[in-house]
Amino acid sequence: MADDAKAKGNSAFAAGKFDDAIQHFTEAINLAPTNHVLYSNRSAAYSSLKRFSEALSDAQKTVELKPDWSKGYSRLGAAQMGLQNYTGAVAAYKKGLEIDPNNEPLKSGLADAEAALAQSSKSRAGQGASLFGDAFGSEMWVRLASDPTTRGLLQQPDFVKMMQDLQKSPNNLNLYLKDQRMMQALGVLLNLKFQTRGPEDAEVPETSSGSPERKRPAATETEPVKEDKRPEKDPEPEPEPMELSEEKQRKVQAQKEKEVGNAAYKKKDLETAIQHYTKAIELDDEDISFLTNRAAVYLEMGKYEDCIKDCDIAVERGRELRSDFKMMARALTRKGSALVKMAKCSKDYEPAIETFQKALTEHRNPDTLKKLNDAEKAKKEKEQQEYFDPRIADEEREKGNQYFKEQKYPDAIKHYTEAIKRNPKDPKAYSNRAACYTKLGALPEGLRDAEKCIELDSAFAKGYTRKGTVQFFMKEYEKALKTYQEGLKHDPQNQELLDGVRRCVEQINKASRGDLTPEELKERQAKGMQDPEIQNILTDPVMRQVWY
User: What is the Cα 313 distance to its own chain's centre?
Assistant: First the structure.
């Protein structure tokens, strides 16, 4: 029951139904509270819902139950990362790598945890960075430009220079707090409202009448009163084009190129799509979706090596940029699809399967899981095709025949089995192995091989002989009679089939005359009670009322 609940949880997890997965894993844990895998799976489900405290608790239980299982430390590290306990995450991943030094997910997790720890330490170095977090990050210019109160400030070179300095060194914030424009910008970046006061709001001394008094220079009667004018300031120079503004424009243009590429892809204009995705990549190399989109086009065009190259670059660049794990999984999945398309032998599927598995460690997507299952199935089928050799199959069957004549039935079965692997479509190998199983008293196995023989060649009389013989030894005389009669339709003069019919009729007549021994009668009654039709009659409510 615990395995059933676990299987349901795994299915729900693969479908992205994490709440359902948690419910099933909890049910399984209640049935098998010492199974470390169940806690590990539930921890993963909690992490997917960003419920990192519960994920941490389950991960700790996992390593407590199975301290030598590396995956438990991977769960522990992921939970600690979610809680932003980067020191704990580093320790967990390192402990896992002590157990399994070649574990790629642990290596990747450790690299992420160490990078996050370094970034966190750097952020804590200054009060400004710790107070205002990512206020001066890459989105700063977009937010300032989109707010009407700060849009005009971006035309002032000294303000732009001040913000550029804060991007590089957030600790310098205290140097600029006296600037009212900085308070205005912080209000936008932090979504706060500061009480700022511009020069026009400065307090003016009042006269006794309560009205503001303007002071003018003293003037004599003979001297005309001159208007008080403040000295004019030198005109401010025209703002130079801003480097970051250009970068923003390039990103916007790159998105436009992507949209045009998407439209071309939908119209199956693949060459045009490639051109626009390439332009987008040239304009902005920090968005790996351009690479994954171009890889998808290459995949559809059959340019599998180009597709793989783009996917590898996307994964490498995504690691550097700490891109969304779903984007990383998408790149790996497309690479796996290209590798499957290129596969020519069973071994060629191995790198594809490994790539799909890596994609699932980034993001457990049902589509990727299906591709993995399909690749594993295709690999198995290819292995069977590569193993197929009718000539060797005939040789193995002949070896089996020799052992059969020597009454060495287990050895005969071994060679007949090899013959079947080499040529699964040969009914003779199944027929001969059925005869061996019958000699050894393994009647169910013999019946299964005889039925497979008939399935492969319905006109092969020997298959009906094998099946009828097994049924006769199982005391199922009516079924055996039907089997022999079916075989006679294909070979009316077959002596083995005719003898089989005769033996079955004798046994059936013997039973109808009551000539059975007490042991035979008892055995026949037991056989009858096992018949599905008899069982249906026995369980019928109406019939039970008649009997009782």
Answer: 20
> Whose structure tokens read 């140097």?
175
Amino acid at 425: K
- 439 with 409: CB under 8 angstroms? yes
pLDDT tens per residue across all 548 residues of the chain: 778 888 888 888 877 888 999 999 999 999 888 999 999 999 999 988 888 889 999 999 999 999 999 889 999 999 988 888 889 899 999 999 999 888 888 888 898 888 888 877 665 554 444 455 567 766 677 678 777 788 788 778 888 888 888 777 777 777 777 788 888 888 887 776 554 443 333 333 333 333 343 434 443 333 333 444 444 444 444 444 444 457 778 888 889 999 999 999 999 999 999 999 999 998 888 889 999 999 999 999 999 999 999 999 999 888 887 888 888 899 999 999 999 999 988 889 999 999 999 999 888 888 999 999 999 999 988 888 888 889 999 999 999 999 999 999 999 999 999 999 999 999 999 999 999 999 898 999 999 999 999 999 999 999 999 999 999 998 899 999 999 999 999 999 999 999 999 999 988 888 777 666 666 656 655 655 555 654 554 455 544 444 44
Q: Are 142 and 114 in contact (CB under 8 A)?
A: no
DSSP one-letter string for 286-305: T-THHHHHHHHHHHHHT-HH
| CA–CA dist 91, 103 (Å, integer) | 15
Q: Is the pTM of this model over 0.90?
A: no
Contacts (Cβ under 8 Å, ≥6 apart) of 370: none
Pair 140, 167: CB distance under 8 Å = yes
166-171 long-range contacts, CB within 8 A, separation 24+:
166/128, 166/136, 167/136, 167/137, 167/140, 169/126, 170/126, 170/128, 170/129, 170/132, 170/135, 170/136, 171/125, 171/126, 171/127, 171/128, 171/129
Instruction: Give the position of tokens 């002590």.
Output: 98
How many residues are listed for the chain in this entry? 548
DSSP state of 457: -
Integer angstrom CA distances of residue 523 from 327, 511, 516, 517 = 67, 12, 10, 10
SS3 annotation, 48-59: HCCCHHHHHHHH
Dist CA 83 CA 60 (whole Å): 14
- Residue 3 CA to chain centroid, in angstroms? 21
Contact 46, 55 (CB under 8 A): yes
DSSP state of 69: -
CA distance 355 to 337: 9
- Quote the radius of gyration of the chain (alpha carbons, Å): 40
By three-state DSSP, how is residue 328 classified?
helix
Buried-state track 179-192, b at ≥16 Cβ within 10 A, e below 16: eebbbbbbbbbeee
**CA pair distance 124, 276, nearest whole angstrom:** 42
User: Distance (Å, rounded) from C-alpha 516 to C-alpha 506?
Assistant: 12
Q: Are 504 and 477 in contact (CB under 8 A)?
A: yes
